[in-house]
């Protein structure tokens, strides 16, 4: 393996998820987006995933690496572990007139993906009611260059304040917007919903954000906005932090909303009550 380039930032990541049940689960089926892919913004040096059973891997229509597995016997706990090393690449690609970097995310030869225009369609989690469209429209009245999109993202961050434990994974963008609070998932879905309502393709991104001052790390979420569907040119905006993504962001998956890019989702038969424990560690490595 060649040494990392001196202008990259390399991280060692460990993600441990444990589901515990008050009664044994008789059978469960799981879909996991816990393996990042190499692309224009990062290079995955190695990655390993441990789940019960024998997970099958595939590429979905968004370019994500997806694993599926089934737990067929009684289980009181289900543990999923992912770890590896990822190099986050420095800003590169096309520059807009204000000096911001955009990137091309066209599929490599031989890989089929949905068109960026597919990300114009709303979902139950990303429907934009009239008040949300009215809020977003002035920010993009003169066009949707990166500065305008950043202004919208910061406006959303002020309108939907970051406040844990006020929403859950089933909260829609419309509900979070009306409530005026939520977490990164909600802010990202409001950004996606607002852009789509104004005719701009946008997709939800799940991943990690490295904050050396954080006492606990967890999954993070932000949005990719398509600047040029024909050229498959995108910019990536962290609504929570009001900035373009940078060397602190590690991408896991993209989708139409949280549901299609969630790190772990599934259905089960039995199990009674459920508790979830997630532990994420991110360690920068010296180049």
Brief characterization of the structure:
This protein folds into two domains: 9-88 and 263-285, Immunoglobulin-like (Sandwich); 103-261, C8orf32 fold (Roll). It is 16% helix and 41% strand. It has helices spanning 130-136, 146-159, 173-179, 184-197, 258-261; strands spanning 9-35, 42-50, 56-59, 65-71, 75-88, 103-104, 161-162, 181-182, 202-209, 219-228, 233-238, 243-244, 249-255, 264-270, 274-285.
Structural class: alpha+beta
The CATH level-2 architecture of the largest domain is identified as Roll
Query: How many domains, in number, for the residues?
Result: 2
Q: What is the tally of helical segments?
A: 5
Helix content estimate: 10-25%
Q: In the CATH hierarchy, what is the class of the largest domain? A: Alpha Beta
Using the alpha-carbon principal axes, give the shape: globular
Radius of gyration: 19 Å
Q: What portion of the residues fall into strands of 2 or more residues?
A: 35-45%
The first-to-last residue Cα distance is: 13 Å
What oligomeric state best describes the polypeptide chains here?
A: single chain
Mean pLDDT: 91
Using the coordinates shown, work out and report the CATH topology of the largest domain. C8orf32 fold
Order of helices and strands: EEEEEEHHEHEHEEEEEHEE
**Uncertain segments of ≥5 residues (pLDDT<50)?**
1-6
Strand segment tally: 15
Question: Largest sheet, described in full?
Answer: 7 strands, antiparallel
């Amino acid at each position: 393996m060649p040494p990392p380039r001196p202008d990259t930032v390399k991280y060692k990541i460990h993600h441990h998820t444990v589901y515990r049940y008050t009664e044994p689960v008789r059978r469960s089926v799981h879909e996991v987006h816990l393996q990042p892919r190499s692309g224009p913004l990062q290079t995955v040096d190695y990655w390993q995933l441990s789940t019960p059973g024998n997970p099958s891997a595939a590429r979905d229509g968004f370019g994500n690496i997806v694993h599926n597995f089934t737990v067929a016997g009684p289980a009181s706990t289900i543990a999923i572990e992912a770890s590896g090393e990822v190099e986050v690449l420095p800003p590169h690609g096309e520059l807009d007139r204000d000096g911001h970097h955009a990137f091309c995310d066209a599929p490599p030869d031989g890989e089929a993906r949905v068109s960026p225009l597919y990300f114009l369609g709303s979902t139950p989690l990303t429907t934009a009611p009239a008040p949300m469209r009215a809020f977003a429209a002035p920010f993009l009245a003169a066009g949707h260059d990166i500065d305008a999109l950043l202004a919208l993202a910061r406006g959303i961050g002020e309108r939907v304040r970051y406040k844990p434990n006020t929403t859950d994974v089933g909260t829609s963008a419309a509900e979070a917007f009306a409530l005026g609070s939520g977490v990164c998932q909600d802010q990202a879905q409001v950004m996606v919903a607002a852009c789509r309502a104004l005719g701009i393709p946008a997709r939800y991104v799940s991943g990690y954000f490295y904050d050396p001052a954080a006492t606990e790390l967890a999954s993070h979420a932000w949005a990719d906005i398509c600047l040029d569907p024909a050229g498959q040119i995108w910019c990536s905006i962290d609504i929570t932090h009001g900035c373009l993504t940078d060397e602190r962001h590690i991408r896991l998956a993209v989708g139409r909303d949280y549901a299609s890019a969630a790190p772990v989702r599934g259905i089960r038969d039995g199990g009674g009550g459920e508790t979830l424990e997630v532990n994420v560690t991110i360690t920068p490595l010296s180049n």
